[in-house]
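ok new one. same drill as before - C-alpha cells go in, u give me an amino acid for every spot. 675 of them this time. try not to just spam alanines like last time pls lmao
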C-alpha cells in the first residue's frame, strides 16, 4: 500500500512541481451575502478550508481552535466553540472570503506535508503522526491518494486473472472501482434490478441515514450538494446510482442475477460460480477470485411467532415494503422498535386508524434536533465557492466520530452499577435518560416503557428529533410491551390473553445479520462447506479471509460493523485495499491462490472476542443483532479504527499459505460472463 514516507513524497513532489488545484467556481457575491452564508457555516471546517485556500494560517490559530469536547450524546454545535470564538471566527471567515473573491478566486495550491498536517491538527488536535496517512486517505488529499499504485498491465500483463464480485451495493461498487483502477477484469453479479444493495431494497416510509451522509460516502467520490445532513433513502440510492453511472461501473453488472453456489476447484485454484438469471436460466462462470459484497443487512428476519402464517390480512417486512397497499384508515400492527420501525412509525402514524406497536426492548436515542433538516442555502453555496470546504466539512464530521464515543461503550471490570458498564457509560445513560424523561414528561405511563434498562450502546442506538415521542402520544397509537403469544387470523394475541385485531402487520424485526453469505452454497478447498465449517459462528480474518477458502474475500464481513465510531464505508474501502494487496501479491509472485492459516484465524478471532467482551454490546445480555444465535458478537469491530487501518495496509504473508497451479493460469478473460 503506502507508508507515511510515500505519502510525504507524493505530496512534496506534487507541490514542488507547482501543481495547483482549480477552484470549483468563481463568484461575485456581495459582502452582505457572504456574511449571511457564513452565519450558516460549520466554522471549524470553514476556517481550515479558508486557510487551505488562502494560505492565511492565522485563521487556524489556537485562539479559534474548537475544544471538541467528549460528549456522552452528541458533539456540541461548532465543535464546542464558545460564542466569543464563533463571533471572531465568523468575522475572520467573512474577511477571508471577501479577500479571496477580490483576488479573483485563483486556483489553490496543494499544501505540502507540513501544512496539511497543520491544517488537520486544527480539528484532529490529539492525532499523533500515526494517524496522518489514515486521515489523508479519508480526506483524499492529494486527490486519488487511495488508488492502487500498480496496474495489472505493469506487473503481470500476460497473466489471466478474473474476479467475480457478488453484490452491487456500497461495498461491491467500491471493490469494482478499485479493481478497474488496477486493470483487473471483473463482473458484478447483482440479484436486484439496480445498484444500491440495502438502499435499493429498503424503501419503507421514513427510511433515511442515521449516519451523517457526508461521512457515508466514498472518499474517492465525494459529494458537496447533499440536500440533508442525514439524507433520505432516495438521496443515498441516487448517490450510488450516480457513482455507478459516472464511473462506468454499471456496464459491468449482471442485474437480476443471483449467485446460488460458489465452488472451488483444487486442480485449477479457481472458483466456479453458479448463478440464476432474470429469466430463471442457470449459468456458470469461472473466476480466479471472489469478492463477496453481500453485506450484513440483506436478508429480512421474520420472528418465530406461532401462527404467523395464519394471519388473513396483509403482512410484510419493512425491507419488502408493499407500496400497493394503502394504509389510510387501516388498523396496523408494527412488530419491533428497532431502526426501521423507529422510522416507519412516525411516518404512518397520522394516516392509520389505529397503530399498535409491539416492543420487546426500547431503543436508546441520540438527541439529534436537525435529523430531518435540509442543509441551508448558505452552507451549500459555501461548498461551491470555497475550495475543498466540503472535504474539510466531511473530515470534521468524520474525526468527531472516530474515537470520541468509544470510551462511553467501554467496560470497567470493577464497575457494578446496574444498567451501565462503566462511569462513562453511566454518564451517557443519565444524559440519555434525562432526554427521554423530558420528551415524555407529560406521559409518565409512556416514560416507564421507553426508558431502557440495559446499558447504552448494548444495542443499536437511534437518532431522534422528537417525532418518536410525538407519534407515541397520539391517542390512536398504543405501545404494547406484553410479549406476543401468537398471531391469529385476525391479529396479534399477547401473553395476557388479549387479542389485538388488525388489518395489516408490519415486521420491523431486522435481518439475519449473522448468517453471512446465506443462502449461497459455498464449497472451498478439499470440499469444505463454509456453513458447515462455521456452524452458525461466522468468523473471518480482518472480516475478509477464511481458512480453506482460497481467494475468497468478504467485504463488510464478520466483525466489521461499527457501533460508536467511524464510517462503515471507510471500513469497506480499507478492506478493498487489503484485497487489492492480496491480488497484487499473487500477480507479482506467480502464485495462483492464497489460503489463510488456521492458527492466524484463531488468534485473530481470540483478540476480537476478548475486545468485544469489554464493550457494552459484548457484556450485556440484552437481545441484539450484534450477536449470533450462540451468543457471540459476530458483527462488531471493538477496537480503535486506527487498528483496522494499520492491519489492512500491507499483506501479512505469514498469515497465509500460497498455492501454485499452472492450470489456474488457463482461466482466460474471455471466460468471464458478460452482461
Amino acid at each position: 500500500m503506502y507508508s507515511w514516507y510515500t505519502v510525504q513524497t507524493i505530496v512534496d513532489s506534487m507541490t514542488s512541481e507547482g501543481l495547483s488545484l482549480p477552484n470549483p467556481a468563481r463568484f461575485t457575491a456581495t459582502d452582505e451575502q457572504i456574511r449571511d452564508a457564513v452565519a450558516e457555516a460549520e466554522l471549524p471546517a470553514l476556517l481550515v478550508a479558508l486557510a487551505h485556500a488562502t494560505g492565511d494560517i492565522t485563521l487556524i490559530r489556537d485562539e479559534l481552535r474548537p475544544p471538541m469536547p467528549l460528549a456522552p450524546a452528541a458533539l456540541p454545535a461548532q465543535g464546542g466553540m464558545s460564542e466569543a470564538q464563533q463571533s471572531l471566527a465568523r468575522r475572520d471567515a467573512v474577511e477571508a472570503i471577501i479577500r479571496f473573491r477580490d483576488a479573483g478566486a485563483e486556483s489553490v495550491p496543494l499544501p505540502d506535508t507540513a501544512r496539511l498536517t497543520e491544517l488537520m491538527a486544527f480539528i484532529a488536535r490529539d492525532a499523533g503522526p500515526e494517524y496522518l496517512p489514515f486521515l489523508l486517505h479519508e480526506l483524499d488529499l492529494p486527490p486519488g491518494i487511495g488508488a492502487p499504485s500498480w496496474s495489472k498491465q505493469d506487473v503481470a500483463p500476460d497473466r489471466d486473472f478474473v474476479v467475480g464480485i457478488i453484490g452491487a451495493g456500497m461495498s461491491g461498487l467500491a471493490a469494482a472501482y478499485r479493481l478497474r483502477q488496477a486493470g483487473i477484469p471483473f463482473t458484478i453479479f447483482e440479484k436486484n434490478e439496480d445498484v444500491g444493495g440495502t438502499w435499493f431494497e429498503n424503501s419503507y416510509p421514513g427510511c433515511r441515514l442515521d449516519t451523517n451522509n457526508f461521512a457515508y460516502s466514498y472518499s474517492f467520490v465525494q459529494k458537496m450538494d447533499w440536500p440533508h445532513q442525514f439524507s433520505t433513502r432516495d438521496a443515498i440510492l441516487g448517490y450510488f446510482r450516480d457513482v455507478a453511472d459516472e464511473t462506468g461501473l454499471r456496464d459491468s453488472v449482471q442485474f437480476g442475477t443471483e449467485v446460488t453456489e460458489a465452488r472451488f476447484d483444487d486442480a485449477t485454484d479457481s472458483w466456479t460460480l453458479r448463478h440464476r438469471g432474470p429469466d430463471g436460466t442457470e449459468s456458470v462462470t469461472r473466476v480466479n477470485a471472489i469478492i463477496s459484497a453481500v453485506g450484513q443487512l440483506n436478508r429480512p428476519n421474520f420472528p418465530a411467532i406461532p401462527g404467523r402464517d395464519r394471519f388473513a390480512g396483509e403482512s410484510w417486512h419493512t425491507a419488502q415494503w408493499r407500496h400497493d397497499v394503502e394504509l389510510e384508515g387501516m388498523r396496523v400492527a408494527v412488530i419491533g422498535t428497532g431502526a426501521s420501525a423507529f422510522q416507519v412509525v412516525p411516518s404512518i402514524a397520522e394516516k392509520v386508524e389505529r397503530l399498535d406497536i409491539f416492543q420487546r426492548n426500547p431503543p436508546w436515542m441520540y438527541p439529534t434536533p436537525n435529523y430531518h433538516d435540509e442543509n441551508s442555502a448558505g452552507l451549500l453555496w459555501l461548498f461551491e465557492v470555497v475550495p475543498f470546504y466540503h472535504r474539510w466539512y466531511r473530515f470534521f464530521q468524520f474525526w468527531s466520530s472516530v474515537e470520541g464515543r468509544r470510551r462511553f461503550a467501554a467496560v470497567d471490570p470493577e464497575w457494578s452499577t446496574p444498567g451501565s458498564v462503566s462511569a462513562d457509560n453511566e454518564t451517557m445513560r443519565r444524559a440519555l435518560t434525562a432526554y427521554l424523561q423530558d420528551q415524555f414528561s407529560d406521559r409518565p405511563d409512556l416514560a416507564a416503557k421507553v426508558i431502557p434498562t440495559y446499558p447504552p450502546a448494548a444495542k443499536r442506538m437511534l437518532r431522534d428529533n422528537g417525532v418518536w415521542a410525538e407519534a407515541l402520544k397520539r391517542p390512536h397509537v398504543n405501545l404494547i410491551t406484553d410479549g406476543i403469544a401468537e398471531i391469529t387470523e385476525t391479529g396479534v394475541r399477547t401473553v395476557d390473553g388479549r387479542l389485538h385485531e388488525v388489518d395489516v402487520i408490519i415486521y420491523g424485526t431486522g435481518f439475519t445479520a449473522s448468517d453471512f453469505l446465506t443462502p449461497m452454497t459455498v464449497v472451498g478447498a478439499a470440499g469444505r462447506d463454509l456453513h458447515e465449517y462455521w456452524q452458525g459462528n461466522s468468523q473471518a480474518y480482518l472480516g475478509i479471509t477464511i481458512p480453506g477458502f482460497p481467494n475468497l474475500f468478504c467485504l463488510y464481513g464478520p466483525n466489521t460493523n461499527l457501533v460508536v465510531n467511524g464510517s462503515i464505508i471507510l471500513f469497506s474501502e480499507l478492506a478493498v485495499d487489503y484485497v487489492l494487496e492480496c491480488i497484487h501479491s499473487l500477480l507479482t509472485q506467480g502464485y495462483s491462490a492464497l489460503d489463510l492459516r488456521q492458527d492466524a484465524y484463531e488468534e485473530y478471532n481470540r483478540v476480537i472476542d476478548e475486545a468485544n467482551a469489554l464493550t457494552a454490546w459484548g457484556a450485556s445480555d440484552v437481545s441484539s443483532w450484534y450477536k449470533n444465535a450462540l451468543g457471540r458478537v459476530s458483527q462488531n469491530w471493538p477496537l480503535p479504527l486506527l487498528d483496522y487501518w494499520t492491519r489492512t495496509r500491507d499483506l501479512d504473508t505469514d498469515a497465509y499459505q500460497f498455492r501454485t497451479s499452472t492450470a489456474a493460469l488457463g482461466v482466460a478473460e474471455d471466460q468471464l460472463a458478460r452482461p
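The domain at 160-299+513-671 is CATH 3.50.50.60 (FAD/NAD(P)-binding domain). and btw The chain is about 35% helix and 15% strand.
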